[in-house]
Amino acid sequence: MSQSAPPPAQPPAEPQAQPQPVDGNPYAQQPGAVPPPPAPGVPYGAVPAPAPVRNNVGLGLVAAFVAAVVAGGVYGAIIGLTKHEIGWAAVGVGFLVGLAAGRLGGRNPVLPVASAVLSLGSVYIGQLVGEAVIAAKETPLSFSELFFQHFDVLQEAWKADADPLTFLFFAIAAYVAFTGAKKAAL
Question: What is the DSSP letter of 35?
Answer without folding.
Answer: P
